[in-house]
Specification:
Oligomer: single chain
Largest sheet: 7 strands, antiparallel
Strand order of the largest sheet: 11-12-23-14-19-20-21
Number of helices: 10
InterPro entries: B30.2/SPRY, B30.2/SPRY_sf, Butyrophylin_SPRY, ConA-like_dom_sf, E3_ubiq-ligase_TRIM/RNF, PRY, SPRY_dom, Znf-RING_euk
Structural class: alpha+beta
Distance between the termini: 56 Å
Shape: elongated
CATH topology of the largest domain: Jelly Rolls
Keywords: Immunity, Innate immunity, Metal-binding, Zinc, Zinc-finger
CATH class of the largest domain: Mainly Beta
GO molecular function: zinc ion binding
Number of domains: 4
Radius of gyration: 50 Å
Strand content: 15-25%
CATH architecture of the largest domain: Sandwich
Mean pLDDT: 82
Amino acid sequence: MSLSKPEERLALELSCPICLQLYRDPVTLPCGHNYCLGCIQNAVHAEDPKSSKHCPECREEYGSPETLPKNFKLSGIVDGFLAATSGGGLRGGATVACDHCLDEPVAAVKFCTRCEMSLCPSHLKRHEERHRSLHVLVELPAERDGKRCPVHLKVTEYLCVQERLFLCSECLMEGTHQHHEVQTFEVAKGEMTRIIEELGKSVSDKLQMTEALVKSANGGPPNKAEDKLVARANILLDNMTSLITTYKSRMSTEMDDKLHTRDKSWQANLCDLEGCLHQLQEAQQCTSEVLNQSSEFLFIQNYLTVEARVRQAANVTIPGLHSQESSDAKHLCALLRTDAFHAEMSLLLECLHGIMNPLDLTFNPVTANPSLLLSTDLKTVKQCAGVKSSCAGDHSERFSSVSQVVCSQGFSTGVHMWAVEVGPGCAWSVGLCYKSIPRKGDHSRLGHNTSSWRLQWKSKKLTACHDSANVAVGDGLIVPPKKVEATLDYEGGTIAFHSSGHGGRKQHLHTFSAMFKDAVYPAFGLHSTSGDSWITLLSGV
């Protein structure tokens, strides 16, 4: 309850000296001092029960608090005071200060229509003595449209912008403000209205962004980032284990088949060698027998008998041992698809490296169109059409024709993944571009040049575009994705987009194929101006 000075003095007189509040059930001590019944009872309880009771102010002795008489008159005065102040009976509206009391404001009681000044009782008496009945005095008006100049006592009509002072016409004639910017109240109000409306719009835009961030933050950490990171790493490690297990199983099967075939071939080769050995041994024995024959007749006879067999043995081709380790190893690599295994394992390792070393993307303020508003951490962008944002000023990298912004981080090698969350009902573009993308004109739009690739949700349609070749994608998607993930394989020449739903379920949206020749940068666009038009870069992806 706000009170004027007379009311404050009255309220002080009607306050209990113990609790310093207005009396409640006041009682009177024999000495004449008054207290709230509850306050005097509490004071008695705080003292020694066996000691006598004394007035807290004058220390005069009295009996039990229960025997003290209630002060009905004082109680009625307090009730009347409360009723008057709560209903405005004592104040008659807001207090109007006396225009003559400059050191300390004093409540005025009358208003002079001739001087257009409010007067306190003291200055009212002097005013009546000076002007007698020549000036008309009335009750205080509810409001005052203007304030008088304290120097010349004339109504102020101007504002000194530099010194922020109200001036009257005589202040201007004196020339003390001739080098200052002076405005009439009408001009000043118009200028101040424009400024406050611009500031209000900026505050409103930032309020909407903050509310969206608070709403997102109130949901708690997004799926507990640490748990999500561990889960994704475990999935990749499980995939690696599965890949190795499959490769090992395939290798064991192929090796068993190879060993069985080799054993059969070896046995056949051994049989051939043993047959050849037996033939040669037999021929050697026949040769020895012929040469050891002393009779010429028998020598010739035996020669004629064994000559054909010995000649055949002498010309026999000895079968060699099979040695195909080199060719078998190459054949085995082909059967086991070793190159494919190496490629898959390398991709999984790169993905694991990306998870354990997550990207920390931020928007580049110097590239943002002036209609865009960036958050302090440079991770959220929203439209602020009609308001000059912090992304103003000329810069060679700034998009001047379309509401787009590029990230500060670029990639010229490796596999990288990032994700964004988009506002509900927002029309957006998510893509990739070279640093050489045009910054002005229609060809600066993402996807409408050879320097960029983009996925876009607009007019309830999902489209993909590169070099102005626009195609519908998403298999008749009706509900816009709330979270979009992008995966760049620089050496592989692909940029793939997926939507991420509840439970981590992903839906492939589109994949671009390209032979990247320079560093590429994540790029984004906003094509709607509603309060829900925003894009937020997600960390730890």
